[in-house]
Amino acid sequence: MFGFLSTPFSSTWTTTNTLRFRHQLCLGRSKRKNSQNKRFLAVASSKNGQPSSGEGLTQRDAKQKALQGVLQQIEKTYGRGAIMRLGEMESMKVETTPSGSVTLDAALGGGYPRGRLVEIFGPESSGKTTLALHAIAEVQKAGGVAAFVDAEHALDPAYGSALGVDIQSLLVSQPDTGEMALEIVDQLVRSAAVDIVVIDSVAALVPRAEIEGNMNDQQMGAQARLMSKALRKITGSMSRSQCTVIFLNQLRQKIGVLFGSPEVTSGGMALKYYSSVRLDIRRKDTLKDNVGIRCKVKIAKNKIAPPFRVVELNILFGKGIDTYGCLLDAAEELGLVIRKGSWYSFGGSNIAQGKDACVEYMKAHSDFVSQLELQVRGKLAGMVIPREMDVDVEPVYD
Q: Where does the RecA family profile domain start and stop, copy by copy (predicted)?
């Protein structure tokens, strides 16, 4: 019935079709392989930043042209520098001003950042105003202009002068309302003529509605709204004018807190968000003979260096931060000053026996102090101080 399958013709037909099928199969595999290679080359070229075809090149050119057009339109509307690429900015490093304590500067990453917001909060008599006055003194030493907004009406000029503040050139304002205080701060910052502004304190910034109202009137969140509105205006101006604004703040207690800390700062949440640095200062102990207090400063927030560092420093009554003690502690921690037993040595020569005697030696040798501070700050900044800048130490053995 199917005898024709065994004929030579049928055998030839079958062989021919088989070869043809195999040839088509090989062609299909070759086409698929070529298409895979093309896709691989296209992906590789796109990873290398090269267009894979003329169509891709045209699309990229169109996007770049559109980007240039919108950048030019923004600069035409808002002025040159309104938008730029991050790598084209003049300086991406945040400049700092000294705090008056070398150890605190090391923890902050160099000092208080310029053009940023700083909050210093803590209990009463913990050293908040002292830190602020030292910051003002350091700015004035560098030839800057400082302003102090005394909302608490409690500034002591004699104490500020003892800390190194130039009272004659210090700008002071004692505003009647919180709106007046923050408007003054806004105008000072916008002027770009002031380098640092201190507000003492947030809790004393009373909204006008509270002053004009009665004691039994309830203004819910009036101070928080005032602070939030003011900080929105001030923050951008600070960055442009490179003016540092320091807010001093008080602590309050939340009611009904069973777990966690019940402490909260005044003025709402806005100041916490806008601040680049937040310092929590606490009174730890009283120094011997009641000459001062030992304070612990915790960096609760820091946007220019690692946060949560803790620094301890002495504040002497009527004199401010013990700068000699802070410098000695920093030099010892960095290995510039070696302590063996009770003896302190520098450069292989003994300085004095005991910390108090070493501090007295530093007070009597200003050249040694200035050179030691230069080496400490240089090491903190990662710089190498040349050997010829080393200072000769007069050894003390009694």
A: 93-251, 256-326
